[in-house]
Amino acid sequence: MIGYINSYETMGLVDGPGVRFVVFMQGCPLRCLYCHNPETWELNKGEQVSALELFNKIKSYKNYFGEDGGVTFSGGEPLLQPEFLIEVMELCRKEGIHTCLDTAGFVNGKTEEVLKYTDLVILDVKATNNELYKKITSHTMDKFNDFLKLCEKLDKDLWLRQVIVPDINDNEESILELKDLYKSLKNVKKIQLMPYHTHGKDKYKKLGMEYPLNDTKAMEMNKLNELQKLLEE
What is the CATH number of the domain that holds 39? Predict the structure, then answer.
């Protein structure tokens, strides 16, 4: 099975527990207003590798993982390449390598099988109501909601993350909605607010694309910390 990979991070420290080998996979169905990786949108681009080739890359860093580390499949949206993902994850499972899926939860017919080989899900919560979700992503919440139900059914460990963007969701109402979602789920192990940044502007310019949030400033950390406290109260 051949997969399409955008890039790698060999010693990642923020995309899951411990030291991670992070695989940024190609392809994403969402068009988030604040996306900073538009180069990952198209599916059949990037480096082509076999499942075994990718597994061998991951395995070569196993000595750095320690007790908590492992591999994180990110993107893009890794669930767009489910057969490839299943094959690589199965090899990792046999080798005893911890697997993490960093996803927006764009569920499809193969997702349940992917989750069987997934030790941890980092779920990117774009929004908690359909109106805002559609504004941010250009899609409805249907697939996201189905993914949440599937994670609950399988009792899959979840980390929830949400990017906080000035004038879009940096308000008490949005945070309390996220808190309600968090409290309704029994399998959430961690919840974290992520600051919006403007690192993607140059990428859009190089690709000849208009940046949707060109006039939006980066999220202030003081306010983000206040919202995080509200979330954890």
Answer: 3.20.20.70
